[in-house]
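hey team, just a heads up i'm posting the complex here instead of the shared drive bc the drive is being weird again. everything in one block, sequence lines first with there labels, then the predicted structure for the whole assembly after. its two chains so it's a bit long, scroll down
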Amino acid sequence: MSEHNELAHHIVGPGVYVVILFALLVGTGLTVWASFVDLGLWNPVIALAIATTKAMLVVLYFMHVRYSSKLTMLTIGAGIFMFLVLISLTLADYISRAWGNW
Amino acid sequence: MPDNSAIAHGSPENSGDAHDEHPSYLRHHFNSVEQQADAAGFAMWLFLVTEVMFFGGLFTAYLIYRNWYYAAFVAGSHQLNVKWGTLNTLVLIVSSFTMAMGVWCSQTRRRSGLVLCLTLTFLLGLGFLGIKTIEYREKIEKHHVPGFHYSLQSFMDPQSEPEVYSEYHDKPLPLDMAVHTELYFSLYFLMTGMHALHMIIGLGILAFMILRARTGAYTSGHTTFVLNFGLYWHFIDIVWIYLFALLYLISRHA
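-- predicted structure starts here --
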């Protein structure tokens, strides 16, 4: 567990936080700008892709997950995977419910 | 009673007064400060996973209803003000940054820095709720609150609102579609309301932390509380990042 203890002591400094803050502000500007351009079907795709990128920056750096233990990473990964399973099954149900009846 | 304390602490070396040998904030059922911090962090993440499921359910409902009543959800979304939404996103992102800096101050034992960061986070959170209040008031004035004298005028006669019409040129919705805008606003108030409730709870904890931080409670080695509150605050930020995209942005050109 010595590797573990070393990780627990990792302190993320202001430099990293400033860079991430800047990236998040740019991401926000980008997603608002993209919403003013008519990209048809791609508008929601791009908005969600930028949102997911921003969320990942927050999770990895502001929430220190990049520097945290494998247990923490596994917990988050399992949580997100479970959420994706639930949303996929729900959507599969709603998409297939009226199959052939339209 | 040296024998009893040795049993209680499960370690023969600690047979004297154990409190001389570990920091006062280390609970006796943990072997080390690291183990205690890991356990608390793990528990915090488990809690956040339940929160992902909670908000995820709302997001899923929004996704399905948006597909069913697409025109109504697009028209409803056009009632939101992207400028307020963008400003609130920026406010919340900066508050996440000040919170992260607070964690750093706590870890590097900077008491006044920590108090400053927590205070800034508190004020930015308050600012977010203030802007949200302006937006809510507009919805109330336009009778867009579901169940309270809900009005379909904006959707059946879009030209009655020149400031919205000039931007989107929405066609009037037929009555059977216009009624479903109420569902859009139900989900809008449910999702932003639950988000705001999380913010209000966060502000309460922040106020408590500011008072304690002034006495040096989090800058003498015991950073767990600040660290885990930071996780909670950043999680709220992430929920808003998705809410902003889903409620304000994706329907602008639909």
